[in-house]
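Example record

The entry below shows one chain as it appears in the dataset: sequence first, then C-alpha cells.
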Amino acid sequence: MVTDTAAAKSMAERLRAVKWDGDAAFAHRNSRSQLALEFLRRTAQWAVAVGAEEGWPVSDLAGALEPELTVAPELLEGLDPDETSGMYPVVPGLGAAMVRWAALGDLPQQRFPQLADPYEPLLQLFERGGAFKHAPGEFDLGFSSIQRGSVTGRAALEPLPIDTASLDALDQER
C-alpha cells in the first residue's frame, strides 16, 4: 500500500484552516444542513460498500478499504478543535479519519468509481462555520438538527448538490 502523503497533508492543512465561527455557521445554516445530509448519504454508501456499517457515520472507512494504511502521526496531530473554545467539537477521531481517507489517494475511486468522496460534504460544512454535536440518532448543527436515519435508508437516497453555487443559493433562502 502506497500512502498518498501529499493528499493527506493537504486534507490536514484544510482541516486546520477551518475557522470555527458561530455567526458564519448561522449564515450558512441551510447549506450546512444539506451538506450534513449529503455526508450521511455518502458515508452510508461507502460503509455498505466496504463493510463498515458498525459505527456509521463515523466508522473507519479508510481502514475497512485498506487495513494496511499508515499515516504519519504528525499529520494527525491537532485536528480536533479545542473543546474549551465554545464551538461544537469535531467528533473525536473524525479529522483523523478524513486525513486517512485522503491518504488512500485514488484507491477508493479505482475500486468504487460510482461512489463520491465521503468526506467532502463534511469538510465544506466545517468550512461554512462549524462542526456539529453527534447526539444519539441525530446531528445537532446548532441552528437545526438532522436525523441520522439508518445506513441502508441513507445509502438509498439520491445525491444532493454541493457545488458552491447551489449551496450559496440555499443560504439566500431565509
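Notes for this example: The longest strand covers residues 133-135. The CA atoms of residues 63 and 69 lie 7 Å apart.
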